[in-house]
Design brief:
seven-stranded mixed sheet; 2 domains; N-terminal domain of TfIIb; single chain; Rossmann fold; alpha/beta
Length: 243
């Protein structure tokens, strides 16, 4: 379903200054500025970090997203590299990157324990010895406790965009994630909808899997501003250090 969103993704999820602030803080701690943007979507953070002097590789499983990101990199005169690639099998040498990003609630698209472990172990493998993995998901400890049927609608009236998101809880423990993007312009409205299954990943499962993959320290926050994590924060943000 994400291919239909490629041209609108940066408008729906614009690059945030708070997010960039944390990324800059991490980059000051690591030796190097080579960045892997795993599940990069249409490339918003890849573009922002390229402008700040990083050598960025973006990967995403959706070929439509990657095609759009490549086109936009060319149009904007940016040197970021993009590949349609599975983060469970990253085509890079050991120790290639000083920072790996995996944001935008991407990991819950991996529906099995072994898939999550493969992805996190691959991210650990391609990090340098001083490297850091920065993860961001929706906080599924909160989701499983509160069981919301709707997530907040993302609206940008100045662009005629509204993005609605809903959850349906399945008996097998997965959650069906349904989206509807409404575009309003002078010619009327267009809607793009879709549905994908997600696997709720709790803090305990995420931190345990990171440890199993060899990360030496794991810091957990409730947002990119490093607020304390709790069962009631909307996000979980993790900084996992390889060495």
């Amino acid at each position: 379903m994400y291919t239909n969103l490629a041209g609108y993704f940066e408008a729906i999820f614009p690059v945030g200054e708070t997010q960039l602030g944390l990324i800059r803080e991490v980059l000051q701690l690591v030796n190097g500025r080579r960045v892997l943007d795993a599940a990069c979507g249409s490339g918003g953070y890849s573009f922002a970090l390229t402008r700040e002097g990083c050598a960025v590789t973006g990967i995403d499983l959706d070929p439509g997203m990657i095609a759009y990101a490549k086109e936009q990199a060319y149009r904007r005169g940016l040197s970021a590299t993009f590949r349609a690639e599975d983060m469970r099998c990253i085509n890079e040498r050991d120790g290639e990157f000083s920072l790996v990003l995996c944001m935008g609630n991407s990991l819950p698209h991996l529906l099995h324990d072994e898939d999550l472990k493969k992805a996190l172990c691959e991210m650990q493998r391609v990090l340098s010895d001083e490297g850091v993995l920065l993860l961001q998901n929706i906080n599924y400890d909160w989701v499983l406790k509160s069981r919301p049927s709707q997530l907040p609608v993302i609206e940008h009236p100045e662009r005629g965009i509204a993005f609605s998101r809903s959850y349906d809880y399945r008996d097998d423990g997965l959650v069906d994630f349904t989206t509807c993007l409404t575009i309003s312009d002078g010619e009327g409205q267009k809607e793009y909808g879709g549905k994908v299954p997600l696997r709720p990943i709790t803090r305990e499962e995420l931190t345990a899997t990171l440890a199993d993959c060899g990360f030496k320290s794991v810091d957990v926050y409730g947002g990119f501003d490093k607020r304390p994590f709790s069962d009631d924060t909307f996000h979980i943000v993790v900084l996992a250090k390889k060495g």
